[in-house]
Design brief:
124 residues, mainly alpha, 4 helices, flat
């Protein structure tokens, strides 16, 4: 009985988490669109301040990524996996996977530092 529930939970849990995230994101978008439609029907002028006050407004979110922060987090995860693979687990593959994740994090970090310096050069 339990042997069947563990694989089912392993499949159902990620699917459920993804469904919850998409459901609430879609619901927020629908609420924003409904409110925006009511504002248009009432004939109000849509100023940026008015749009920002509407619940669910997302201007530019996701565009302003912090690559340095992402690189540091990914590098930390890679170091953790590598250390776990080296000291905690019997699997040597985890050490290699940790080094792979670490190298991805270092790449993101290097890109973040490079692009931040490049933006600073463009402004002067």
């Amino acid at each position: 009985m339990w042997a069947l529930l563990i694989p089912l939970a392993g499949i159902a849990m990620p699917v459920g988490i993804v469904w919850i995230v998409f459901y609430y994101d879609n619901r927020t978008k629908e609420q924003f669109n409904a409110t925006l439609q009511k504002l248009i029907e009432s004939g109000q002028e849509l100023s940026p301040e008015l749009l920002e006050s509407v619940p669910g407004y997302k201007a530019g979110k996701g565009k302003d990524k912090d690559d340095i922060r992402s690189g540091l987090i990914t590098s930390g995860v890679g170091i953790g996996i590598a250390l776990f693979g080296h000291f905690g687990a019997e699997e040597q593959a985890l050490f290699g996977i940790g080094l792979l994740v670490l190298s991805i994090g270092v790449g993101i970090l290097a890109y973040g530092i490079y692009s931040k310096n490049k933006k600073g050069d463009d402004l002067s």
